[in-house]
Amino acid sequence: MPQPATAEPLPLMNFCPRCASPLEQRLNGGRNRPHCTNAGCGFIFFGDFSIGCGGVVIRDGKALLVQRAHNPGKGSWQIPGGYVEADEAVAEAVVRECLEEAGVVTEVVDVLGFRHSIGGQGSIGGPSTNVYIVFRLRPISGEPCADGIEASAAGFYSLDEIERMDRVQGLSSWAIQRALEGGPGLHPAHRSPAAGVVRWHCRWGIRRPAPSGLVTLWRSVAPRRAARPGQRATPPAGGGLSDRS
Q1: 232 pLDDT higher than 80
Q2: Is 196 a residue whose pLDDT tops 70?
Q3: At a CB cut-off of 8 Å and minimum separation 6, what does 214 contact?
Q4: Closest Cα partner for 237 from 220, 219, 227, 224?
Q5: Mean local confidence (pLDDT), 31-41
Q6: Separation CA 15–CA 48 (nearest Å)
Q7: In Å, what is the CA distance from 241 to each residue of 45, 77, 105, 237?
Q8: Does the reported pTM lie above 0.70?
Q9: Mind listing the domains of the chain with CATH numbers?
Q10: Which long-range contacts (CB under 8 A, 24 or more apart) does 180-187 make?
């Protein structure tokens, strides 16, 4: 059941990041938010957000993994990925991250799913509320070679090898399994006339909340078969991501 909006203030900011004028709390959209006091600026602080991406690259039945070279999670294994720049398309960001961290040139096939994590102390996304998009990519060229900065090792590994490795990120394991299943993902649905603007869609989706209730993982699934007599009919094609299975 939807919760009522609260008037609790967002994390404190004292000065506007655009014009350096003082900020003051004003009720906006059901809660107090820092507003710039400069009438000609109009800045409102809506929160701290970030977008991340990761890429599942499969070659000869093996998945590309990198070992983190720094904290948090130093020494753990995961798919290549990182933050999306503010002026960067997310599909370009994941290709860049694979090249930077692992030395492998790739191209995007589709989207396997995404994770939403509410920021705060103890959050897996850190202090920022984060949306992390997981792509399936096709390898084009290059052999795995860690950059020595963000990744200390890189390579293609089979499922058996991954299961024997220590500290493999759970989301990466799920994404690799999902990619190897070969099910449908999200594909570009519409390209805006504006250069570089791409939107994504999928036919069906389900929500799988983590036990904490703070992390939600969405994924695309294959369309269901037509209903038999007496069964509920399958919804028509063209539906989007759903929060109910």
Answers
A1: no
A2: no
A3: 117, 118, 123
A4: 224
A5: 94
A6: 15
A7: 28, 29, 30, 12
A8: yes
A9: 1-47 (no CATH), 49-181 (3.90.79.10)
A10: 180/58, 180/61, 180/63, 183/220, 183/221, 183/222, 184/110, 184/220, 184/221, 184/222, 184/223, 185/109, 185/110, 185/111, 185/112, 185/113, 185/136, 185/220, 186/110, 186/111, 186/112, 186/220, 187/110, 187/111
Distance separating alpha carbons of residues 73 and 81, to the nearest angstrom: 14
Residues across the chain: 245
Helix or strand or coil: residue 68? Answer: strand
* Residue position matching structure tokens 């791409």: 198
Q: pLDDT by residue (tens digit) across 126-167?
A: 678 889 999 999 999 999 999 999 999 999 999 999 999 999
pLDDT in tens, 52-78: 999 999 999 999 999 999 988 899 999
Q: Which amino acid is at 134?
A: V
Distance CA 193, CA 156 (A): 38
Residue 204 pLDDT: 34
